[in-house]
Amino acid sequence: MQPDETQSVNPVPDPNDWQHQVHRKKRPVALVVMAFVVLALATAGIVPRLARSHKLDEGLVSVQEHISTVTTVNLKATPGATDVTLPSNLQAINETTINARTSGYLQARYVDIGSKVKEGEVLAVIESPELDQQVLQSQAQVANAEAAVGQARANLSKSMATAAGTRSDYVRFQASLAEARANLAHLQARYTQSQSAVEVARSRLTQANRRLDGVKAELTRANVEENIALVTLRRWKELEKADAVSGQEVDEKQSIFDASQAKVSSAGADVNSAEADVQAAQETVKGAQADVLAARADIASGQQRIEAARAEIGTSRANIDAASAASRASQEDVSAAQATVGSNQANVRRYAAMQSFERVVAPFSGVITARNVDVGDLINPATSGTGASDQLSTVTKTGLFGLARTDIIRAQANVPEDSITSIRQGQDAEVTTQEFPGRAFRGLVFNVSGALDASSRTLLVEVSIPNPDGLLKPGMYAQIRFLGAKTKTTIRIPATSLIFDARGTRVAVLTRQDAIHFVNVKVGLDFGDQIEILGGLRGDETLVTNPDERLQEGQKVKPVANSL
Questions:
Q1: Is residue 361, in this structure, part of any structural domain at all?
Q2: N-terminal to C-terminal alpha carbon distance within the chain
């Protein structure tokens, strides 16, 4: 039987799987339990909070019903000037400790405490023999150095003259070299000419030899003809004796013989002349060859002269370099000597300046406030000191003298940070002292520090006070009043309006809806029943004069106006 497709095909649960069945039965129960627990916890937390909130609302309502009336005052910002008075200590406009600059014994003293001195006036004289001797020694060293400069300059002139001489020799040797080269060229031309003369002489010798050979041949031919004519003449004479020939024919043969003899004589003379020409040509060749040899020797000599001139030029150039080096060395000696002179002169000026310190003079006009030495005391600048260590002290305990200019007195004051914007250079001020009650000394602000003291948040200001009669003394305690120091708009509130608690310094201000609003403020000067406010208020608010500690932010109140 086939199963119905519409029926469930879920498998039959295993009767042995009892744990799975139990777990499926317990799950809804656990969910229900957890829901009840969460609901109970929420109810336990919300209900007490609602109760407390209800109680707080009831307390606020009761407070509002209890505090319903407050006294108020309308603020008004008032522009005006407020003088600032600060303590001060009077000081001289210029104060200094006069120390010694040189060592020695105090020879004379011309002032004492209270003495009025002028600028440049001699206060004391220190005797320092060692310094005086050092001045003389330095002057002698200057003289020696100047003599050394003169010697160095003389050496420089000598070196320069030597250099000039070597340059002159160099020019002369160059001229000699040029002359030697020209002479060599002339000798070479002469040598070429001598060689040409040798060739010409040899050509003439050849021609003379040829002519000699020709005339010798003529002489031989003439001798042959003479012999023939002689033999013919003798034969014809024998024939004449035999009357074989006529006398005329013999005479003809005689004339022929005589002509041949003359020809022989002439040919002999030509031979002798040709031999003389040959000898002359040979002598000419020898002379021309001698000229060639002489020209060669002259060329060699000219080349030697050129080499000698070159060597002299090289030596002269080396001498020029040496003379130039000597001149530079002499110039350096002059510079060194001049530097020594300058150094010694500087020593003279230094010792002279030190010597001038034997006379202790006043650097400016003033009054002597301290005298720490007397005649005969040993003065040592290393131990004379540099002045009093206390900046407020007007009587120095170190040095030779203390000097102060008191025709103008200066007073210093530390101006608080809230008043520095109203202090300016050239502002009027008044100075009062206990020694002159009821009298105010006029002064001007002449120095204002460019930075505040980080520890006290104050600005150092100096006031100058004319003191022509000397009434004010350095070291006096005084009060400085800066006239019209504060010119900015100020806000003052009743002193009872301030609230001091953990949230700071506050005041209670009424809004337009007559609700309380607390504002933190910055307090300035305290005027007793009124307090200056520097920040936090505009100056047009309505202020609660006696705020109760139970007042709350935003609380509605009923204001009752009061005059400030």
A1: no
A2: 112
Chain-centroid distance of CA 379 in Å reads: 42
72 contacts 559 by C-beta, under 8 angstroms? yes
534: domain range? 68-80+490-562
Cross-strand partners of 428? 444
Backbone phi and psi for residue 284, each to the nearest 5 degrees, phi listed first? -65, -40
Q: Looking at the structure, tell me whether residues 467 and 494 fall in a common domain.
A: no
Per the CB < 8 A criterion, the answer to whether 460 and 91 are in contact is no
Q: What is the CA radius of gyration of the chain?
A: 72
> The tokens 């010597």 sit on which residue?
355
Give, in order, the Cα–Cα distances in Å from 99 to each of 116, 120, 384, 391, 547: 18, 15, 6, 17, 67
In this structure, the answer to whether residues 422 and 393 fall within a common structural domain is: yes
Asked if 429 and 85 touch (Cβ cutoff 8 Å), the reply is no
| Residue 283 maps to a domain | yes
95 contacts: CB under 8 Å, gap ≥ 6: 369, 394, 402, 403, 404, 405, 474
The whole-angstrom separation of Cα 389 and Cα 401 is 15
Exposed, middle or buried: residue 369 (CB in 10 Å: 0-12, 13-18, 19+)? Answer: buried
Tokens of 342: 């300058």
Q: What per-residue confidence (pLDDT) applies to 409? A: 93
Backbone angles phi, psi at 259, to 5 degrees: -65, -40
pTM for the whole thing? 0.46
297 and 397 together in one domain: no
Residues 48 and 88 in one domain: no
Which residue, chain included where needed, has tokens 């400030």?
Answer: 564
Tell me the pLDDT tens digit for each residue of 398-437: 889 999 999 999 999 998 887 788 788 888 999 999 999 9
- The CATH number covering residue 525 comes to 2.40.420.20
Clarify whether residues 266 and 154 are in a common domain.
yes
Nearest Cα neighbor of 88 from 486, 472, 470, 476 is 476
Q: Copy the structure tokens of residue 369.
A: 């406030």
Residues belonging to the chain: 564
Work out how many domains the chain is built from and give that number.
4
